[in-house]
Design goal:
The structure is a single chain. By secondary structure, the protein is an alpha/beta fold. It is about 35% helix and about 20% strand. Strands 6, 7, 8, 9, 10, 11, 12 and 13 form an eight-stranded parallel sheet that branches. It has a five-stranded mixed sheet with strand order 1-3-4-5-2. The protein has two domains: about 110 residues, Beta Barrel (Ribosomal Protein L25, Chain P), CATH 2.40.240.20; about 200 residues, Alpha/beta knot. The radius of gyration is 24 Å and the shape is elongated.
Length: about 325
């Protein structure tokens, strides 16, 4: 993907009609498009059966997108300084598309779409149990985790974290941070941000196996294992072992037996979850509460890192090793 092409988050859906039509007409257009796609598929099957060498009928796809949100158009004109014929990438929560600007003025922007791609989550999935740090560090952590394609984030409240986060305004601000990160990195799948939970409740969930499909790694300067070594073992166990059931260890779980419905399931790595302490660290009681339920207790460096730096470093190492 070209790093020099601007990526822009938009509120518009890609199926929005470029004309000013009623919602009823838009739905009718969608139905016609779906019908056309079915007809094209049926025609393709018929031609294959007859051995036809005729050019295949292409399904109807949206070819133009009109952006009319005033804030977005203003940003395109006066911040990004985009002009007619400039290439652009637009995306929302579900799709990303490449295109070229046909026309742009103070009220709207018309884009000729070239490709539309469904947004896909990077695998294996990574979940973060994130301490509620001070505002700047918390937002920086969310930004970095979005860039690295983290799947979901659950903020948690401990004795040394903030306790006053989780309003509608807070979620709106975090969404804008994630959008900024996605535009910069061109990693368009935004993490799911869950409601904050007390660390005690979080520990109960881990203990009750409600998130047992994750291998939860606790990061701590006094950790007993090196994160790179631990992840290296994790990768080896899920790529070298071809048996339906993995050997028993802290970093492995039983895999499902290979079936005809999903013959590749034995090769799929388990998902990871990370948890790190806040700036003032977890208390001894909180460590005692969490430790029995994590898969590994890892350290990153021999020095003491800020919480937001440790979060970024651990996620970057995981993504690099688990590509």
């Amino acid at each position: 993907m070209n790093a020099h092409i601007f990526a822009l988050y938009i509120k518009e859906q890609f199926w929005v009609s470029p004309q000013h039509v009623s919602q009823k007409q838009v739905q009718k257009n969608i139905a016609v498009q779906t019908l056309t796609q079915k007809e094209a598929t049926a025609q393709k099957i018929v031609e294959q059966e007859r051995g036809s060498k005729k050019q295949e009928t292409q399904p109807l796809v949206q070819q133009e997108l009109i952006i009319q949100d005033s804030a977005t158009v203003h940003r395109m004109l006066h911040v990004l300084r985009l002009e007619k014929n400039d290439p652009i990438i637009v995306f929302n929560q579900d799709y990303s598309a490449t295109g070229t600007i046909l026309e742009i003025n103070k009220k709207s922007c018309a884009i000729a779409l070239q490709t539309i791609t469904t947004t896909k989550q990077i695998t294996p999935t990574i979940h973060w149990f994130l301490p509620l740090l001070d505002r700047t560090d918390f937002e920086q952590s969310i930004y970095h985790l979005t860039v690295l394609g983290v799947t979901s984030i659950t903020p948690y409240i401990s004795k040394k974290t903030r306790h006053n986060w989780g309003s509608e305004k807070d979620f709106e601000r975090i969404h804008s941070v994630m959008v900024s990160a996605a535009e910069q990195s061109k990693q368009f799948c935004l993490p799911k941000i869950n409601k904050p939970e007390l660390l005690e409740k979080l520990s109960e969930k881990i203990a009750s196996n409600s998130i047992a499909h994750y291998h939860t790694i606790l990061l701590d300067v006094a950790g007993k294992e090196n994160l790179i070594t631990t992840l290296g073992q994790f990768v080896e166990q899920f790529t070298a072992d071809t048996s339906p059931i993995l050997s028993h260890s802290k970093l492995t779980t039983a895999r499902k037996t290979v079936t005809a419905e999903d013959p590749t399931i034995a090769d799929k790595p388990a998902n990871l979850a990370f948890i790190a302490g806040p700036e003032g660290d977890l208390t001894p009681d909180e460590y005692a509460m969490i430790m029995p339920h994590v898969s590994a207790h890892c350290t990153l460096t021999t020095t003491v890192l800020k919480a937001c730096d440790a979060i970024f470093l651990a996620s970057g190492i995981a993504r690099t090793m688990l590509v």
